[in-house]
Write a structure and sequence with these properties.
By secondary structure, this protein is α/β, with parallel strands linked by helices. Helix content is 44%, strand content 17%. The termini are far apart. Bound molecules: pyridoxal-5'-phosphate.
Length: 401
Amino acid sequence: MRDVMPWREPVPLDATMGEPRARGRFGDYGGRYAPESLVEACREVEEAFRGAWADPGFRGALARLLAVHAGRPTPLTPAGRLSEALGVRLYLKREDLTHTGSHKINNVLGQALLATRMGRRRLIAETGAGQHGVATATAAALLGLEATVFMGERDIERQALNVFRMRMLGAEVVPVTMGSRTLKDATSEAMRHWVGATGDSHYCVGSVVGPDPYPWMVREFQRVIGDEARGQCAAELRTGVPDHVVACVGGGSNAAGTFAGFADTPARLVGVEAEGGAGAARGRLGVLHGCRSLFLQDDDGQIAQAHSIAAGLDYPGVGPEHAHLRDLGRARYVTVTDDEAVAAALRLARTEGIVPALESAHALAWVIRAAGSGELAAGSTVLMTLSGRGDKDVSTLKELL
Ligand SMILES: *Cc1c(COP(=O)(O)O)cnc(C)c1O
């Protein structure tokens, strides 16, 4: 299998990131592996999403929320000093400048608006570091919905500030005491809770994971990143399209949204995972949280615990569409260590005056490495999604610097 698509080879139709095939399939991945009552609930979400996405009224209302509440469109920033040092032309898509400080708000506003359209009065969500929980609590407050956020007990201890933010926004935070008491268990518990609450609650999944239609729907709500960037590149770059499009990958939502804007172009797509959470680069086929995809597993097929300094990349798997894009060779997935990410975060802070989230710093770390090794040709253009701002990570960094 090739890991890089040759320049200007025609793009396979299957790789253009349209609708999944029947039953939410991306190649061999995806699907809807859930208890019967959730299969029905997912079917309702799919039907509602199809209707909403085809309705200019819904699209207009979402576009307005994204503009007046979340601060879209976000800028495309040329990283001038860093580009000069690296010998490539690097452009940053600034999701760190959205309200609440990361791309998660794009998806959450879409799903909250959909929940309202479906007559639901409450959002259920899982959260690891609390970023998706805070975004969900924010959207719920804005639209007059209740929010119940499941969070592992260990994460609650580690992320006290985000727990407080969620409570301040009016959300209920439910501690999860099972298993490793982190994101994987919080997700299982949120799904279990939804079984008994499908009538009045919408489950707001935080990445391109979970049962169909979530991987597709979340990618469509994040597509705004790629679509905006495509237009901005057309105006800014002589070639119109960048040579490389790079984003970090936890579950894969900011990468999927970014890639979707460039899937029908010759741009090379690169997803950057954490060394300790490399579902796409090193996972094996499995089923978790309602979906068939690539997951880190031990020899018995038990899902392994992921480890990353960036809490948002601490998921042991990757969304099914990324697994498929990998198999097709349309996108390539690489890994970066904690140390490389920390060094990249500092370098961006000191050359461009931007403190990135440690998740986003992974994408930058690969750009720095690839520019140094010549893998990125001198003078080539690179679009990188800066998925979030680094304020949430200062206490982690303080202990290291
Ligand atoms: C949650 C998060 C991620 C990882 O999630 P994806 O679904 O892979 O995008 C990346 N960056 C930031 C800032 C996050 O908060």
